[in-house]
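Readers outside the structure-tokenisation community will struggle with the description of the input data as it stands. What matters is that the chain and its backbone geometry are given together, residue for residue. For illustration, here is how one protein appears when written out as sequence plus structure tokens:

…
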Amino acid sequence: MTNSESAVRKQLVLFLCEEMKSCRVELEPEFVEYQVFLQRLKRGDFDLAVSAFLLDIEWNMKDILSTAGYFNYAGYADPRMDAALELGLREMDEDKRREIYGRAHDLWLEALPLIPLFNLNYYIGVRRGIAVPARRFAVIGSCGDFFYNFQGW
């Protein structure tokens, strides 16, 4: 079982199924929507689950860019982004989903609330104009003071 929003993840699972045949292990892939995937993970309703942060065009960045996102350490909030990401999760047609995520990407470029940093300890930089909520979990490696002021941000 894997969530179906990533084309790379989907191909990885299909490849795994083919490779396991040589070991006489038959796997039947099941591609589910992300929220269903999370619910089934919590219940233990799977034989084998495949998940990873694979940053291809299919990936829904709700965890990072939605107002209530689990990894939204910056407190970024945009109702248009929330609506686009929710719509993307509900759309099962790949071409339509790409269009939706394309619009979400444009919204991200418009606001540019955070940027990926290729550093082992800090993986995002938060734009200075984003108000970080006073009540938040302290997470090591989310965004430290040095990167908070990264290149004038």
Remarks:
- Residues 4 and 31 are 5 Å apart (CA to CA).
- Residues 119-123, 139-153 have pLDDT under 50 and may be disordered.
- The radius of gyration is 18 Å.
